[in-house]
Write a structure and sequence with these properties.
The complex is a heterodimer of chains A (565) and B (549). Chain A has 565 residues and is an alpha/beta fold. Chain A has 20 helices and ten strands. Chain A has three domains: 179 residues, ABC transporter type 1, transmembrane domain (ABC transporter transmembrane region fold, Up-down Bundle), CATH 1.20.1560; 123 residues; 211 residues, Rossmann fold (3-Layer(aba) Sandwich). In chain A, strands 1, 2, 3, 5 and 6 form a five-stranded antiparallel β-sheet that branches. Chain B has 549 residues and is α/β, with parallel strands linked by helices. Chain B is built from 20 helices and eleven strands. In chain B, strands 6-9-10-3-11 form a five-stranded parallel β-sheet, with helices on both faces. In chain B, strands 2-1-4-5 form a four-stranded antiparallel β-sheet, with no helix packed on it. A two-stranded antiparallel ribbon of chain B has the order 7-8. In chain B, helix 19 links the parallel strand 9 and strand 10. Classes of the chains: A alpha/beta (565), B alpha/beta (549). At the A-B interface, helix 3, helix 4, helix 5, helix 7 and helix 8 of A face helix 2, helix 3, helix 4, helix 5 and helix 7 of B.
């Protein structure tokens, strides 16, 4: 089958080999065991053949029959043991590879800077982690051992047959290699098409999930009967198209089976005629004996079996390569990561000024700036002027190309970022609520927060009424995007979290975007209250009212022009 | 009755023809396989015996050798047919299950329907349905075809050889198969359920972890959350390992059954041949048939994890599939009361699950041709109010009349014909822009669609991408938030409802575009009564009056 492989291994193949590398030795060992198990078959066949040879020639004894059966059972049991051992080893390898790949993917994705958002969406990464990576398992369990068996077992059986009858060897030799040739000719194109169709069946599941998600709209549009009819039609046309392709695609496996069936039948018929003495050719000096005949008949199907296994594992390999391709794509997309590990750390000590020095990232250049403890600063400017990027730089969420963010005289870097962030309360543009009760989101990373501090935080952000309206108060699960509270309420809850954390620095990215004026005013008021209590407040905003409420305004669009001039 | 059997019977009732065709060919393949090897073994041993006895000339070689060739080719042909027909049956069953599920779920109440928007629920449900696809082909057929084949094999071998050899060949295989099903299938269900639960937990934790990663980093909780996600992952792998262990047990059982059948056939057949009860060639039939019939058990070997998973999924899906479906009765066109199309009297509403009214009781009428804005800060209950007026949730008290009819007395189809509603969040579907619009208004012409799309400022976006034929991805992806919003609005407007409820219809648009959209709504529906929940100046300005709540 070697010639079916592409001449040079592409990225996906390299990635797949790389993923399996730590377990390569164990996988090889297991593949060897399955090969040895397959090679025990001739011994079992010989026992059966000798028994019938003796029975027909009349030389058989009870002891011989019982002995042969017992030996047949014993070797069979050994063979079974080897297979079970091999599959245990392979299962272990698959488990290890899966665990390692999942942990590695999660680790790289979780440290992606928010600036890399949109590179890979979380649901797609989760699908890769949860649903697609397990496709490596059947590849490891079946495809790898099948490849080794296909390379060794047919050759050994062919050689064994050749010692008894060159005709049988010739039949096998012609029918065997023809299988891959025909598969290549008939199969590949059709298989590719069938893969596409199998994807479409996946699409039907996607379609179902999408329609289920849109059922409320469908009811509001009175489109239920139409939707059902439409879905039925799509499923039916999918079936018709799929069947058209499958008819061709199955031909390839039928051709394969046809060759092995014809091979076995020809061996059987040849052996039968030779034993009757009607065919004088094909065997060596002595005419073929019955023992040899039975033996050859039993070898024939096992000659084809490894080739059929290999063909059957084709899908496993294709699926594994598809996963490897997804991995290489996602890994190629990674660029900027956050500084530090996002782990708990002792906060940087003291109230130190935040000093920006020569910061630049990509095409953006930022002005030098000192922010004193307790100051309030608004970064303003048109979209694309780098407001949010500057907030991310200050928070250690992305590394600058040049320049430094200094806290006192300590630069924010991989070593200090966690300790620096331990002083910051973060108010994001799109609030994210953890699964589980609202309380968990509010007190995330604040193990010492108690009922009092939560109440104070909610009061400061005037968010008590939001919690009071929730059916289970603080214990209400809000889901990932905060369903159950409005956009403004979600922001107020995020501010409450900042307030109750008691952290001395507040970083807020567009905290009033898309809010009605009244709610925006509440948010601004809460930020001012935090500032009055001594917190350093830094916001990126295009809301003029919020900017006006801050002590200092930095127009990044303008500043950039200045520094460019 | 087990949920698996119920789902199978449900499919069987509706897809009897395709399923039985596939089943018959499954049996044909197995029977031909057993017959081929049995006949070959007999042929060779008999030919050898005849050759030795010097009566080779008298031996009829042609019928057996023709039989061997026929069975070899016939088996291959049957295999081809089986593959085609079982796939056909699978695809039909797959469609049937999904249509049935959609039919049942789409008739549920609004709360359930909005619950279906949660990706967690959707993932779980679709994964369960996917798991059931193989119920006929990978579970029911192999068991039934295996049993039928073994029964046939018993009869034929008993007739050709002796019942003793027949029993020796078929009994271990039947017992082995039953043992695999009983022991491992039973033990597998708990692990399969555990593996599936862990899989979904891992998915939701991974999504939560990745989406919330910035907040987690500031909280110093990134490693802890990473650990939580991987705990679920490890739990899932532990369950998978247990299933793999069960699979190995199944392998062992199947292989042992095959070995015992073959060795037993060799002992009994050999001893009987030694005693001259049967000729050696007849003994060969038993041994070779035993070797071939092991194939009957092969599908069970890899099915253990799957059986557990199917039973787990079936238990959740069966109640959904079997619930009676209540089709909303088709409505008659209603003669329209041209004056007060929306009337609210002392209406009090509360969010789902609460009994505490959000607002003081509200009385309001919106006349034909009038646009009224409901204003007030977010969270005051504007959306809850619109949901109640649209009949999606029940008010605490008060009366709602649409075109003079009490809301409670209108059947669904009539209500939707009278009242259009654009909620705050709406879902588009994959397909073309035309597909999306035709879903709402199948009779709308291309010209109408284009004109309205142009009026809301969406046509310039679409025109360069194929216009009405522009293909949207899953759930309408490919359009920006503001564009999706306007497409959903156009979808609602095309139905020309006499009364219309809009929840922040121009969210995400700049004031100039907002004004344009508001003007388009009014000029498309000059005589409709329109009630808008909004806090945006551009929207409020386009209304005749506004009511602050």
């Amino acid at each position: 089958m070697r010639f079916l492989k592409r001449p040079t291994p592409d990225l996906a193949t390299q990635r797949l080999t790389g993923a399996l590398a730590p377990e390569a030795a164990r996988i090889r060992r297991a593949a060897r065991l399955t090969t040895i198990a397959a090679l025990l078959w001739p011994a079992m066949a010989a026992l059966v053949a000798l028994s019938f040879g003796a029975l027909v020639t009349g030389t058989a004894t009870t002891a011989q029959i019982l002995g042969a059966s017992a030996a047949f059972l014993a070797i069979g049991a050994l063979r079974m043991g080897l297979s079970v051992r091999a599959s245990a080893l392979l299962d272990r390898s698959a488990d290890v590879v899966l665990a390692a790949e999942r942990a590695a993917l999660l680790s790289t994705q979780e440290r992606l800077s928010p600036r890399a958002e949109g590179r890979a969406n979380s649901a797609a990464v989760a699908a890769l982690l949860v649903d697609k990576l397990p496709h490596l398992r059947p590849y490891i369990m079946r495809a790898r051992p099948a490849a080794m068996r296909a390379a060794i077992v047919p050759l050994v059986l062919l050689a064994l047959s050749a010692t008894m009858s060159w005709t049988v060897a010739l039949i096998l030799m012609v029918a065997g290699p023809l299988i891959p040739v025909f598969m290549a000719l008939v199969g590949l194109a059709a298989r590719e098409a069938s893969e596409k169709q199998m994807d479409e069946i996946g699409t039907l599941s996607t379609l179902l999930s999408e329609r289920l998600g849109a059922l409320l709209d469908i009811r509001l549009l009175d489109a239920r009967p139409r939707m059902l009819r439409d879905f039925e039609d799509r499923a039916e046309s999918l079936r018709e198209r799929t069947m058209a392709v499958l008819r061709v695609a199955f031909l390839s496996s039928t051709v394969l089976e046809l060759f092995s069936a014809i091979g076995v039948a020809m061996v059987a018929v040849y052996v039968g005629f030779a034993l009757l003495g009607e065919l004088g050719f094909g065997a060596y000096a002595t005419p073929l004996t019955l023992t040899e005949g039975v033996f050859l008949l039993m070898l024939a199907p096992e000659f084809f079996q490894p080739l059929r296994d290999l063909a059957a594992s084709w899908h496993d390999k294709a699926a594994a390569l598809a996963v490897a391709r997804d991995l290489t794509e996602i890994e190629a997309g990674d660029d900027s990561t956050i500084l530090g590990d996002g782990a708990t750390a002792t906060p940087l000590p003291g109230a130190a000024p935040i000093r920006l020095r020569g910061l630049s990232l990509g095409a953006m250049r930022f002005p030098d700036l000192d922010i004193a403890p307790g100051a309030s600063v608004a970064f303003t400017g048109p979209s694309g002027s780098g407001k949010s990027t500057l907030i991310a730089l200050i928070g250690g969420l992305v590394a600058p190309d040049a320049g430094q963010v200094l806290i006192g005289d300590k630069p924010v870097g991989p070593e200090t970022a966690d300790a620096w962030r331990a002083r910051i309360a973060w108010v994001p543009q799109s609030p994210h609520f953890l699964r589980g009760p609202l309380r968990d989101t509010l007190t995330l990373g604040l193990p010492e927060a108690d009922a009092d501090s939560i109440a104070r935080g909610l009061a400061l952000a005037s968010a008590e009424d939001v919690v009071a309206r929730l059916p289970q108060g603080l214990e209400t699960p809000l889901g990932e995007s905060g369903a159950g509270v409005s956009g403004g309420e979600a922001r107020r809850l995020m501010l409450a979290r900042a307030a109750l954390s008691g952290r001395p620095v507040i970083l807020a990215d567009e905290p009033t975007a898309d809010l009605d004026a009244e709610t925006a005013a509440d948010i601004t008021e809460a930020l001012c209250a935090l500032s009055d209590k001594g917190a350093t407040v830094i916001v990126a905003t295009h809301d003029a009212a919020l900017a006006a409420a801050m002590g200092t305004r930095i127009d990044l669009g303008h500043a950039r022009q200045e520094s460019a001039a | 009755m087990s949920p698996l059997l119920r789902i199978f019977l449900l499919l069987w009732r509706e897809e009897r023809a395709s399923l039985s065709r596939g089943f018959l060919l499954s049996v044909a393949v197995l029977v031909a396989g057993g017959a081929l090897l049995g006949l070959s073994g007999w042929f060779i041993v008999a030919a050898g015996a005849a050759g030795l006895a010097g009566i080779g000339i008298a031996f009829d070689v042609f019928r057996p050798s023709a039989g061997v060739r026929f069975l070899a080719l016939g088996r291959t042909a049957a295999r081809y047919g089986e593959r085609l027909l079982t796939h056909d049956a699978t695809l039909r069953a797959l469609a049937r299950l999904r249509v049935r599920l959609l039919e049942r779920l789409s008739a549920r109440d609004a709360l359930t329907l909005s619950g279906l928007r949660s990706s967690e629920t959707l993932n779980r449900l679709t994964a369960d349905v996917d798991a059931l696809d193989g119920i006929a082909i990978r579970l029911a057929f192999p068991i039934a075809a295996g049993a039928v084949t073994l029964a046939l094999a018993f009869a034929v071998i008993a007739w050709l050889v002796t019942p003793l050899v027949a029993a020796m060949v078929t009994l271990p295989l039947a017992l082995g198969g039953a043992a695999v099903l009983m022991v491992t299938g039973r033990a597998g269900i708990a692990s399969a359920a555990r593996a599936e639960a862990a899989r979904q937990t891992f998915r939701s934790r991974a999504i939560d972890h990745l989406r919330g990663r910035t907040g987690l980093a500031f909280a110093g909780a990134l490693p802890a959350s990473h650990g939580m996600a991987l705990n679920a992952e490890a739990e899932g792998r532990a369950a998978e390992r247990h299933l793999a262990r069960l699979d190995r047990w199944a392998d062992t059982l199947v292989a042992s059954a095959g070995l015992i059948a073959a060795a037993g056939a060799l002992v009994i057949g050999g001893l009987l041949a030694l005693a001259d009860v049967i000729p050696p060639a007849a003994a060969a039939i038993g041994v070779f048939a035993a070797l071939a019939l092991t194939e009957v058990l092969a599908p069970l070997q890899r099915g253990v994890a799957e059986i557990g998973r199917m039973r787990d999924a079936a238990a959740r899906v069966v109640p959904l599939l079997e619930e009676p479906v209540q089709d909303p009765a088709p409505g008659n066109p209603v003669s329209r009361d041209d004056t007060d199309l929306i009337e609210l009297r002392d209406l009090a509403v509360a969010p789902p699950g609460s009994q505490i009214p959000l607002l003081p009781p509200l009385t309001l009428t919106v006349a034909a041709g009038e646009t009224v804005a409901l204003t007030g800060r977010s969270g005051r209950g504007k959306s809850t109010l619109l949901a109640a007026i649209s009949g999606l949730s029940s008010p605490l008290s008060g009366e709602i009349r649409i075109a003079g009819h009490d809301l409670a007395t209108l059947d669904e189809s009539r209500l939707r014909g009278l009242l259009g509603y654009l909620p705050q969040r709406s879902a588009l579907i994959s397909g073309t822009v035309r597909d999306n619009l035709a879903l709402a208004a199948p009779d709308a012409t291309d010209t109408e669609m284009e004109a309205l799309l142009d009026a809301v400022g969406l046509w310039p976006v679409l025109a360069g991408n194929g216009g009405l034929d522009m293909a949207l991805g899953e759930a309408g992806s490919g359009l920006s938030g503001g564009e999706s919003r306007r497409l959903a609005l156009v979808r609602t407007l095309l139905r020309k409802p006499p009364a219309l409820l809009l929840d922040e219809p121009t969210e995400g648009l700049d004031p100039a575009s907002s004004a344009k959209v508001m003007a388009a709504i009014r000029s498309h529906l000059p005589h409709s009564a329109i009630l808008i929940a909004t806090h945006r100046q551009a929207e409020i300005k386009a209304c005749n009056r506004s009511l602050a709540i």
